[in-house]
Each structure stands twice: as C-alpha cells, then as structure tokens.
Amino acid sequence: MRRFAMTLFVGLTLAAGFLSAQSYQNFSDEYQRILTRTRWKLGPFRIYPTISIRDVGFDDNLYFGSDAGEPKKDFTATLSPEVRVYWPLRNTLLLYARENPEYAYYRKESYQRSFTNGYGAGFRALLLRRFVLSADAGDDRHRRRISSEFQIPATDRVRSLAAGLAFETARKTSIGISGAVRKISYDEILISPDDTPVAQLLDREEREIAAEAYYQLFTDGFLFIRGEVQEYKFVDNAAVGRDALATGIRAGLRFPLLGRVRGVLDLGYKTFDPKTAGEPAFRGLVGNTGLDLRTGRLAVRLQFARDLVFSTYSQIFYYIEDSIRLGGSVYLTRFLKIDYDFDRGRADYSNRSAVPEEEDAVLPNEREDRRRLHSLALIFRVFRTAGLGLSWNAERWTSGVSNFDRNRNFVGLVLQQSF
Fold it and tell me: In the chain, count of helices (H) and strands (E)?
C-alpha cells in the first residue's frame, strides 16, 4: 500500500509539473494532455496535485547579514503543496482552478513561521476553430526572499488579472495579444542600513500589454518573439517619483520538456524610462535563458539572467542584476549522480545615486556588488525521473559599500523532478 501511494504521489507530481512547466501550449494539445494524462478523476473534473519542498536544512546566515555583524543561524523548511483542477468541455473550453497553501518553518526564529496561501482560476476557450480566448485571476501570498538585496524572509502578495486572444493555424503557429494588471504589496519591514519601510518603497501596480508570435519547429519546440509595454505606478506618496514606463522586445527558442536538449533560449532588449526628470533611464540587454543538455552519463547546464530590479534603498531607484550559471551532472549509476554548479553574478548600482553613510564608502557611481555561489549535491533516484539528495551551497557577496561583504552557507535536502 505504501509503495502504491508513493508511486501515485510522485507520478502525480511529475504529471502536474509537466503541464505547468509549459509556457505556451496549443489549445488542442493542452486539451488532449489533460484528458489522456490524468491520474485522478472526479466526475468531469481532472485533478493534478503536486508538492514542492524547499529550503529544508541548516542556514548559517538566515538574514544574509554583513561580515561585521553576528549572523543568525537556524534550521528551516518550506512545504508547498498545490492542486489544479480542470474541467474540459466539448473540446472547446477549459475551466481551471488552483489552490497553493504554504507553510514556512523556522526552528529558532519562531516569529518567522508563517502559513500563507495562493489561489486562482481561469479559462481557455476555442472560438471558430482558430481563435483562443483566455483569462486568469489570482491572489497569491507567499513568504520568501524577494531578491538578492531583499534577503530577509518576507511575505509578498500579488493580486493579478490577465487576458489574451490568440490566432492558431493548423501547423500550430500562433500570434496573439495579451494584457495583465498586477498589484504587488509587501510586509511592513525595514531593510538595513537604510531602515525605510519596504512597503513604502516597493508597493506598486504593474500594467502590461504584449504581442507575441510562436512558430513550431518540432514537437513542443517553438521559435518565439514577444514585444511588451509595462507601466509601473507606486502606491505610497513618498514613492511616486519611482513611476516609470518600460518597453521591450524578446526572442528565442523554447525546447521540448523531454529530450536531450531542454529549456529556453530567451534574449531581448529593454528600455526603462522613469517619469521623474533627472532619474536615470536604462537601455540594454535583458534575458532569462536556461538550457540543459544530456548525453550518456553527463549533463551540462547553462543559465543566464539579466534584468532591472527595484531597490530597497530609498535613494536608489533600481539596479541591474546579471548572473551566469554553469553546471553539470555525472551519473555514477542509474540511481546515483553528483551535481555541481557555479554561479557568478553582479548587481550594478552605477549612476543610480545613493548617498554613502560613511565618509570612506565607495561613491555611488562606482558601486558594484559581486556574487559567487558554489553548489554541490549528491542525488538518489527515488522514482522514475524524481530525485532526492543532500546539497551544500556556499554564497559570497563582495559589496562596493564598506563593511557590507556577506557570506552564507546552506546544507540541506534537495528534491528534483528531473533526475
């Protein structure tokens, strides 16, 4: 009985992960996947449960404090089950709902323990055999580290509403437009050394409109191009000077979820124009690429990310963060492998003025923080493509601000959906 339950549980996790991991799906393909790969059925409903377990282990610098302070050490864990329920109707309509409660545990820092929840619902409808109308609404609250600068565990809330209309051809090529509105809010906490409430600086509304096109090269593999316009409106009167408008164009290739090459190649160009005169604008490369190549007993990984991030410092509007991650896996046996990854990143504050708090601090237009991360893991296959193991992560930040260099080590369990 226990073996059956484990098999069913992991199978459901992987099936749900397969469906949710696809960023684009032709309507008929998605409809057939839901009908044919369902393991749980309740009347007309198709149910896909999944579970995520993260940050399970020992953290020797919970708040990612500087070397000058006394780091807080603690044992942590986050449990995040999710269930998605689909109701397919007559090959032309998909209704769905999701529920995602989370529990974050801290052994010593008990006030950080929290129960949060996220939920949402939406539909996709096929009209006149070629047009796909979609809409989605959600309300998600989760406790996490928001960014490399915002390392104190905090609860953020994202209320979203999105809609889109796409035209699909018989060859599964598509072109469409979409729009979204997101209201983002944060805990009332302070981030050193500025000690300005984060909610005052970051609570905002984001509005987005986009046009995109997909061309199918092979099964579940697409070339894509996307253009978008985003408007940022900050809530607090003290932060209205942060209002801005961004435009961008991205293009790339999405590979199948299964196969020797998996992931997405995604690069683009972005402009960011603050509405307040005198604030620095941004023009440059952005991207979010993750590729995984598997051959024989070896696997190679490449990740690249670059984008603008809003700062938690009152006198800094934003910074540019980029990172490149190289890694690989060696499969010692069919059920055992070793993973190693090296991540090198940078947070560039240049020309985004902040006043140093100390006379000997680096001038704002010279500030640049750098990160190095080493990750080593031993993973055992527990069922088909699911793996469970032990990992060690060592992170080092070197800051352009005096006395703000930081170290952090984390040892704990890791659960992988793709062994």
Answer: 3, 19
| CA–CA distance, 378 with 62 (Å, rounded to integer) | 23
Q: pLDDT for 134-185, tens place per residue?
A: 999 999 999 888 888 888 888 999 999 999 999 998 888 899 999 999 999 9
> Which residue's entry shows tokens 């090959």?
91
Strand pairing category for 282-295 and 298-310: antiparallel
**CA neighbor of 125 nearest in space, from 99, 98, 87:** 87
Give the residue among 394, 398, 399 at the shortest CA–CA distance from 58.
394
CA angle 281, 282, 287 (to 5 degrees): 160
DSSP, collapsed to helix, strand or coil, labels residue 377 as: strand
Tell me the HSE value of 257 on the side-chain side, using a 13 A CA sphere: 15
Q: Are 102 and 78 in contact (CB under 8 A)?
A: yes
| Rounded CA separation 187/273 (Å) | 27
- Flag whether pLDDT at 113 surpasses 60: yes
Instruction: Return all residues near 283 (Cβ < 8 A) that are at least 6 apart.
Output: 269, 270, 271, 272
- Concatenate the DSSP letters of all residues of 285-350 into one string: EEEEEEEEEEETTEEEEEEEEEEEEE-SSTT--EEEEEEEEEEEEEEEETTEEEEEEEEEEEEE-T
Please indicate, yes or no, whether the overall pTM of this predicted structure exceeds 0.90.
Answer: no
Tell me the pLDDT tens digit for each residue of 232-277: 999 988 788 889 999 999 999 988 766 688 889 999 999 999 988 6
End-to-end CA distance of the chain: 25
**Which domain CATH number covers 227?**
2.40.160
Is the C-alpha dihedral spanning 297, 305, 174, 20 positive or negative? Answer: positive
The pLDDT of residue 12: 37
Q: How far apart are CA 92 and CA 27, in angstroms?
A: 9
Question: Strand, helix or coil at 31?
Answer: helix
Owning domain of residue 126: 2-416
Burial of 272 by CB count in 10 Å (0-12 exposed, 13-18 middle, 19+ buried)? buried
- Domain count across the chain: 1
Residue 400's Cβ-side half-sphere holds a number of Cα atoms within 13 Å equal to 17
- Residue 306, classified by CB atoms within 10 Å of its CB into exposed (0-12), middle (13-18) or buried (19+), is buried
Q: Sign of the CA dihedral 349, 350, 353, 354?
A: positive
